Every structure is written in structure tokens, then in C-alpha cells.
């Protein structure tokens, strides 16, 4: 596919900020395809015969960013599959939890397509921690435990916030306070995106 055929919004925010929750609502109300980089990595980790299974498992447990070649390829393939399966009808993508390191951001925009904007969910660490520990009781996610959460927060501050700052300098960030209830956060999202969502 060519960059001119697709619209991409990056959805960023710390671990547990509510990216997935808000993307699900946007998909429900508007014609987006939701692609979570974390979900694609977890699926690849479990795919029989994947050469990256163990690597992904180790990186996720330690809250580290999987080498970008793996993630960019998974995203690009998923975008291509979506476009093919829908015979071109679906061409608007919410790319959730990506890019979270500068090299990924530059690579993706160079070889796949530039993002229209960056939707950034801003949430205090204490609230994100509370949500993740609560979810960890039932999620089965290998990284929803106190130690992995600490590592994820550290990676977010040191590696992923510089990506948000980079886009902020380019005036491409739409920032939403993610502390309130999911309903309220969604209402703010719709309000701030009204020119984009139509
Ligand atoms: N919840 C949601 N909104 C709420 C609200 N407003 N009020 C109260 N509760 C709320 O929500 C998290 C929990 O909070 C849920 O229980 C929800 O009900 C509740 P969710 O919507 O899942 O938040 P989200 O921001 O999506 O949190 P997630 O845990 O998915 O964030 P991460 O960014 O940590 O996870 P992700 O799957 O994106 O990445 C996991 C790992 O994959 C990374 O740590 C990294 O190791 C790897 N990765 C890469 O290497 N490269 C990438 O490009 C991407 C990921
Ligand atoms: Mg998520």
C-alpha cells in the first residue's frame, strides 16, 4: 500500500493509561482498525515456529522495547492484511502503544507512512500502577506484576516520553488527561479530536 492510501493516528501513554480502552471505543464509533503493538508482539510470541518468541517474552517481562525491526514488520503486515481483507475499505488505523522509542518513530514514518497526529493519554504513575495491579489479578499478562510494572514505568520515562516530546515540538500531539473515568476520558477524546473524527 502507499502512504497516501492510509491515515494513521499514534496512540501513546504510559502503561495502564487506558490506550486500549479508549481505542476500543473509537473503533466502535468511527471506522478505525485498532492495532496494538503489544498485542501483535504477544501474538507473535505465541505463534508456533516464530523465531522471536523467546526474545519477545524476555523483553516484555523486563518492560524493554523489542528491537524495532520486529515490531515495525508486524505492524506493516497487519496494516497490509487489513487493507487486503477489507478490499481497501479500511484504511484508518489507530496504532496503539507505538512508537515508544525514537528509532521506531523515525523508521515507521520513513518506510510505512507519517502519522496524522499523536493522541497522548496523560496519567499519573500512582493511578496507572493501581490499574495495572488490579488488572494483574486476572489478566494473565506476564508483565502485570509489581516488578515488571516498575520496569515498564522506567522505560516509559526514559525511552518513550522523548518520543512524545519530539512530536510535541512538531505540534502534532493531542494530549488528553486520562485520570478520570473511561466515559469522561472518552468524552474529552471526542472533543479534542472533533476536527479529525468528523
Ligand atoms: N482502565 C482503563 N481506563 C481506565 C480509567 N479511565 N479509569 C479506571 N480504570 C481504567 O487499561 C489498563 C487497565 O486500566 C484495564 O484494567 C482497564 O480496564 C483500566 P488499558 O486500556 O489496557 O491501558 P493501556 O494503556 O492499553 O495499558 P497496557 O498495559 O496495554 O500498556 P502498555 O503500554 O504497558 O502495554 P503494551 O501492550 O502496549 O506493551 C507491552 C510491552 O510490549 C511493552 O512493555 C514492551 O515490552 C513491548 N512493546 C515493545 O517492545 N514495542 C512496542 O512498540 C510496543 C510494546
Ligand atoms: Mg494496551
TrEMBL record:
GO terms for cellular component: cytoplasm; nucleus. GO terms for biological process: 'de novo' pyrimidine nucleobase biosynthetic process; nucleoside monophosphate metabolic process; pyrimidine nucleotide biosynthetic process. It is found in: Cytoplasm; Nucleus. Its main location: cytoplasm. GO terms for molecular function: ATP binding; nucleobase-containing compound kinase activity; phosphotransferase activity, phosphate group as acceptor. The chain holds residues 143 to 340 of 343 of the full protein. Residues 134-144 are annotated as: LID. Residues 36-66 are annotated as: NMPbind. Binds 1 Mg(2+) ion per monomer. This is Uridylate kinase. Monomer. Belongs to the adenylate kinase family. UMP-CMP kinase subfamily. Keywords: ATP-binding, Cytoplasm, Kinase, Membrane, Nucleotide-binding, Nucleus, Pyrimidine biosynthesis, Transferase, Transmembrane, Transmembrane helix. It comes from the Eukaryota. Consists of three domains, a large central CORE domain and two small peripheral domains, NMPbind and LID, which undergo movements during catalysis. The LID domain closes over the site of phosphoryl transfer upon ATP binding. Assembling and dissambling the active center during each catalytic cycle provides an effective means to prevent ATP hydrolysis. Catalyzes the phosphorylation of pyrimidine nucleoside monophosphates at the expense of ATP. Plays an important role in de novo pyrimidine nucleotide biosynthesis. Has preference for UMP and dUMP as phosphate acceptors, but can also use CMP, dCMP and AMP. Its cofactor is Mg(2+). ATP binds at residues 16-21, 135, 180. A ribonucleoside 5'-phosphate binds at residues 42, 64-66, 97-100, 104, 141, 152. Its EC number is 2.7.4.14. It catalyses: UMP + ATP = UDP + ADP. It is an enzyme of class 2 (transferase).
